[in-house]
């Protein structure tokens, strides 16, 4: 199995891993996205950063796990994200597309340049906060 | 009036400390202080460590097996003892004493536009397989938008044993060696925590004069190095008694002037050393009379 994935066309990536049998999809491509990690019963999300085929379901079989993301802060008020930069570089080099949330996370990490939507979201968030604060002030005055 | 010494006082320890002092004074031209990893220093320190086979191969906590008995000739016994000594030497390899590492406070970028984005910090860890832990990128994005590298403390949570109160309890129970082993597993060799815990252990050891606990074990090289660094501070009276104890006069003794010269040149506590010398001279005069 000597064919390099990068020689093929972008939308038909043959992954030459012999460890598991891969279904090739017609017109499918590889994405780097967040998959929810098996805590379906609990009210507690946890995401895996994963390289998977586009056509596959979100949480089903992926090609390789490239990291994790925990959206709930821990006791030190930190949101832990792990990134396997080596392998992410490999998959991007083979033509994988990161999704928007992954791109935002990588932008925050400094791996990618900052995503424009992060800035927009921050501004919107700040605007909301400002709207909420004067309202509280007004309510207190009324009382 | 020579006080009764416990068997823990090691004559070799004394003579080797004096040899280390020799090293310092022996080369007045050399402006470079002998470092821990120099061949001569290591040689002296290995000799201090000694090779007490009983202690090195003492039973560690593992599952109980009935002892095995082997029948051997004298020659075979010699071979086996020799290989046991070699293995003991390998086990006694000294953990190096390194200078303290510099704190990390690199700021990779300041993005004021991201301020107020989130109330929590994002900690990004690089999980690439083949990089050593020191070189790993662990990067924190603060809610203020600054992207900075994680400091040494943030990379690791310290073990509760290493707080001051707990250390005291542990020392009372004579667990110095275990503390040092834990410390080595837990911390990097040049972190400030490691150096602090080692310093505390050595201080306690010399206060209680429990040198024998560490005698044939790995950290004793570090202990002697530390004592030399301490410039023989409160240990001074004991140390000089060590050096000049009548038992030790059989060994090549250090003339009295060497510690004085050492005190003047290298030591930061010259006053203490001189006082200690005088105290020693008085006591030796009394004892001889």
UniProtKB/TrEMBL annotation, chain A:
Instruction: Record the organism.
Output: Hucho hucho (huchen)
Task: Decide whether keyword Ribonucleoprotein is in the record.
Answer: yes
Q: Which coarse location class applies to the principal site listed for this UniProt protein?
A: mitochondrion
Superkingdom of this protein's organism? Eukaryota
Do you know which PANTHER family this protein is assigned to? 30S RIBOSOMAL PROTEIN S16, SMALL RIBOSOMAL SUBUNIT PROTEIN BS16M
GO BP terms: namely: mitochondrial translation
- What InterPro entries does the record tag this protein with? Ribosomal_bS16, Ribosomal_bS16_dom_sf
Gene3D superfamilies the UniProt entry points to: 3.30.1320.10
Family label: Belongs to the bacterial ribosomal protein bS16 family.
Provide any one GO MF term from the record: structural constituent of ribosome
Per the record, its GO cellular-component terms are: mitochondrial inner membrane; mitochondrial small ribosomal subunit
What protein name does the entry list?
Small ribosomal subunit protein bS16m
**What are the entry keywords?**
Mitochondrion, Ribonucleoprotein, Ribosomal protein
Location(s), subcellular: Mitochondrion
Looking at the keywords, is Transferase present? no
UniProtKB/TrEMBL annotation, chain B:
Record's PANTHER family?
MITOCHONDRIAL 28S RIBOSOMAL PROTEIN S22, SMALL RIBOSOMAL SUBUNIT PROTEIN MS22
* GO MF terms, alphabetically ordered: structural constituent of ribosome
| A Pfam family reported for this protein in Swiss-Prot or TrEMBL | MRP-S22
* InterPro entries for the chain: Ribosomal_mS22
Q: Name one GO cellular component term.
A: mitochondrial small ribosomal subunit
Q: What is this protein called?
A: Mitochondrial ribosomal protein S22
Highest taxon, organism lineage = Eukaryota
Tell me which species this is from: Hucho hucho
